[in-house]
Design a protein that fits this description.
The protein is α/β, with parallel strands linked by helices. It has 19 helices and 17 strands. It has a domain of 134 residues: Isoleucyl-tRNA Synthetase, Domain 1 (Orthogonal Bundle), CATH 1.10.730.
Length: 497
């Protein structure tokens, strides 16, 4: 039986159009899904939309339409972007779907029947923007907007009941929360008594949500609703066989701003249900502009659609994956994007293909030459390619994607140096066989590099492999078929001015 890999993005709010943050997380998940498929893992990749809650209701009210109509109108923007980004998700869930609503209500009833939900009056500070009650300390931090003092009766989940069990799980499973500094952040949070979680909103205040199955005067708190998508998409309590195949998730990919909900709320909910916890929750950093968080209010949000239209999808995917160290913030600028494009993609990768294919077409009747004998320097390239494959696997599985990409590009640069040293454009005039040996080694190294980069740049690498008649080849050395006709191709990455 194949190993399984189940990866999720957060489900995104539909209160506004998608931005670079949405694009980044989804591309990251896609790269990992594509990579695990390539190493023969049975893979399931889930993304979707969070369509309930106060922010969505407010966005609809501002537009003068019903919340469901607002959601239906916003959804195509996400789907269109995912298509443009070449996202290979296996499922796309919306929290307004019947399968999700039914699953949430079943879970609520199960937790209620277990005695883990109770009704009480609560008075406290409520952040409209975050859609949750906050502490006095949180209010004083200045990180929360639209704070109101609210007193009302609500239903509460006994989250505190599972505090110690969660601490024990984190301590005994070092990879459960990644990176390590985020794990320490949550352990620090759990040193204080854990409050029970308010999981309802009265319909008198909020009517856009999933109705509680045990009290029709209330709807479900948006986070209790949204988090459950990770199992309702698998057919929890309906398609048990599918659920057993995929759960627990290999990775929940999230932004650091929703760490607490995923690393505290979600695990305690699963504990109440008696379900296994996800294997890992990975919180990545933010994309900044001029060292500031992107925000629509200050006008520094990057529209990924515009970037793709101007520069193409693969360069955008490459930059986002190469530039950010997972777990840390990264700064976005057009200047750094263009510099990375020209240095890595145009000068190194694209230029290598151009040199190799041009020389093969000009001197070998447009065919891949035969490897008669590999030189010592060629053997070194071969050996390094095999080492590279192992290193990339290790780093991809360790969530060091930027390092894996850099390893590939270092290898590409070494192949360019190999060409410079052996100068087949000169050698071909006096020793066509040895020049052909050199070009074969370079072409084979390029083929392996393209396969390794294909999760990051599926479109452009596919063009390269097609040009070499190598789309069905694997990572073993020698899969480049001598005598194959090289197909015409346009420059992969024309230089940017």
């Amino acid at each position: 039986m194949k190993k399984t890999f189940y990866i999720t993005t957060p489900i995104y709010y539909v209160n506004d159009k998608p931005h670079i943050g949405h694009a980044y997380t989804t591309i990251l998940a896609d790269v990992l899904a594509r990579y695990y498929r390539s190493i023969n893992y049975k893979t399931f990749f889930l993304t979707g939309l969070d369509e309930h809650g106060q922010k969505v209701q407010q966005a609809a009210e501002i537009r003068g339409i019903k919340p469901k109509d607002h959601c239906d109108q916003m959804t195509p923007a996400f789907i269109k972007l995912w298509e443009k980004l070449h996202i290979s998700n296996d499922d796309f869930i919306r929290t307004t779907e019947k399968r999700h609503i039914k699953g949430v209500q079943k879970i609520l009833k199960s937790v209620f029947d277990k005695g883990d939900i109770y009704k009480d009056e609560y008075e406290g500070l409520y952040s409209v923007s975050e859609e949750r009650f906050i502490t006095e300390k949180e209010a004083e931090s200045g990180d929360f907007r639209d704070i109101k003092k609210i007193k009302e009766k609500n239903y509460f989940f006994k989250m505190s009941k599972y505090q110690q069990a969660l601490i024990d799980h984190i301590n005994s499973n070092p990879k459960f929360i990644q990176p390590n500094h985020r794990k320490n952040e949550i352990l620090g949070f759990l040193k204080q008594p854990l409050n029970d979680l308010c999981i309802s909103r009265p319909k008198t205040r909020l009517n856009w949500g999933i109705e509680l199955p045990f009290d029709s005067d209330y709807v479900t708190y948006v986070w209790f609703d949204a988090l459950i998508n990770y199992i309702t998409a698998l057919g929890y309590e309906e398609i048990q066989e599918d659920f057993k195949i995929w759960w627990p998730a290999s990775y929940h990919l999230i932004g650091k701003d929703i760490l607490t909900t995923h690393a505290v709320y979600w695990p305690t909910m699963l504990m109440s249900l008696g379900l296994k916890l996800p294997k890992s929750i990975f919180a990545h950093g933010w994309w900044l502009m001029s060292e500031s968080k992107m925000s629509k209010s200050i006008g520094n949000v990057i529209n990924p659609m515009e970037l793709i239209d101007i520069y193409g999808v693969d360069p955008v995917r490459y930059f986002l994956m190469r530039e950010m160290v997972l777990g840390h913030d990264s700064n976005f600028s057009l200047e750094s994007f263009k510099n990375r494009y020209n240095s890595d993609l145009a000068n190194d990768f694209g230029n290598l293909l151009s040199r190799v294919s041009t020389l093969m077409k000009k001197n070998y009747d447009g065919k891949i030459p035969h490897l008669v004998k590999i030189s010592e320097s060629g053997e070194k390239i071969k050996l390094n390619s095999q080492i590279l494959v192992k290193n990339v696997e290790e780093k991809m599985k360790s969530m060091k994607i930027n390092e894996a990409i850099e390893d590939i590009m270092q290898f590409v640069r070494s192949v360019n140096k190999y060409l410079e040293l052996n100068a087949p454009w000169q050698m071909v005039k006096i020793d066509k066989i040895n020049a052909g040996n050199t070009l074969y080694v370079a072409g084979e190294a390029l083929r392996i590099s393209a396969i390794l980069l294909s999760p990051v740049m599926p479109s452009r690498t596919s063009l390269l492999l097609e040009a070499f008649n190598a789309k069905k080849s694997n990572l073993n050395w020698g899969e480049l078929h001598s005598g194959s006709i090289i197909k015409d191709h346009s420059p992969l990455f024309p230089r940017l001015n």
